[in-house]
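Think of the structure tokens as a kind of shorthand, similar to the way a musician reads notation: each symbol stands for something richer, in this case the local conformation of the backbone. In the example below we present two proteins back to back. Begin with the first one, reading the sequence and then the tokens, and try to describe in your own words what changes along the chain.
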Amino acid sequence: MIGSLLVANRGEIARRVIRTAKRLGVRTIAVYSEADAALPFVAEADEAVLLGPANPAQSYRNVEAILAAAKATGAEAIHPGYGFLSENADFARTVESSGMVWVGPGADAISAMGDKINARNLMAAAGVPVAPGTTDPAGSVEEAVAAAAEIGYPIMVKAAAGGGGMGMGVANDEAGLRAEYEKVRAFAERMFGDGSVLLERYFPRVRHVEVQILGLADGRVVALGERECSVQRRNQKVAEESPSPAVSPELRERLLAAAVRAGEAVGYRNAGTVECLLDPATGDFFFLEMNTRLQVEHPITELVYGVDLVEEQLRVASGLPPTFGELAPNGHAIELRINAEDPKRFLPGPGTITTWNEPTGEGVRVDSGYAAGTTVTPSYDSLMAKLIVWGPDRLSAIERAKSAVAGFEIAGPKCNLPFFTELLDNPEFLSGDYDTGIVGRMRS
């Protein structure tokens, strides 16, 4: 096992990685911005290094500052968490060329999956189902119009270099396509430095289901079940559950086998997630993207499978075998993302936390990044904590989630806890027969 680990991230994920590393006897190093100096993860690490101002470009995306901190503290390895530099292939290469261990997949796998068009084509060649769409970027709006005529409307217009629900639009006709193409292209150029645009068939009623994979040190790729991620606002997840209530044993077998093929196609190592769109009417699923990092929602897989995915990441990076042999799911888990945003329109509402009381009890886990007296700033994502519950079945997990939400006290910034009270009583959610439009219907 590696002896020291720098966590190149912040908030709840930095704290969560530090917790497992310390349990394993690994010396932990936090890096932080001036805005985050008072957050729990900074105090909980064995060492902490200030990177710079709040602006991510000067702190959490500042490669030179992070590498300097690693060198100064004698870090043997770097864990990138999620977001920021976690899917930056150049950063992964630089870490390894500097003689440190990168706790994540190889840079080649990150590169292969980072371009959505290249990823689609690789997956199709590996026998993984993909939605009808373009195999090359649509270089002009006229090319996009011609491609859409073959694919058929409605069309999803996507930034090829995008991810995390950013850089997407839907067009129902040619006029809509022309408008969305220009909008997505401009956004992609501004956000990702790459204006390439991908077109795919859009499915109005669809579920978002993903599979957790783990590429082991011996070269094998294993799948640790699926997660249902269809509760979304602005194409971004706010609640997840595992297993998915939409997935039958037969469909699960096909899903997991496809995810393993996807990992094998790029020689995948470490933790990753294969995201798919599921047509609930037909049971057909299509590859959406592969996230070459640890996902925000990884705790529900941990509770259902009884594994610590961060420990498994560190073991793979250290060349060690996994802690598990044959894996079998047990029970049901739900994660709710507690954000500093209003529960109606989901607009950010940062501020200083005056009250912070986390729920406790059997089957209840809270992965938090904040505490009373700390401040949620507008510089970063609004995620404050993840409330995760486990139960022997879906109904009991929902009941535990209701009690936990009622027992979570947060005051100061805006908070979306009231939304989850509403969601957990929503008949559509309770039935398990919902899709990515559920939040929109709740707000219509």
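Once you have a description of the first chain, move to the second and do the same.
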Amino acid sequence: MPRINYRSSDIALMARMMRAEAEGEGNQGMLYVGNVIVNRVIADCSDFKDVRSVHQAIFQVQGGNYSFEAVQKGNMFYQRARTGEKRLAKLNLDYWRQHPAKFALWYFNPYAPCPSTWYDQPFSGQFKNHCYYEPKAGTCDSVYRG
């Protein structure tokens, strides 16, 4: 049973986002970005109460901007999905998740050491240039069940 319901078009869309956000961090880095996308669909809290699909997670607008910078700035996001990234996206959608992004809802590249919190959310770990953050205990239990 997959972690979330999805269509084949979701695999390609997610693969494009994973590549655009983390190609320089290899397959592992792309898988962590995929974790965050799936976790946002699972989460029934915070900014993600109305996010119930891969499409909604990727094209969500918060504070007047897309949640994922690659949607508005990334040339790679608008390129066709490649077979390797589609395979990784399907792994995320079906079962794969791992620390530090196992329960993460946010990540960013600070171009400096990772802060211990980000918008009051605790740091869960770092992989290469990205810092990952999961919800504070008791604020989003749904992400831990998904």
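Compare your description with these statements about the second chain. The first strand starts at residue 61 and ends at 62.
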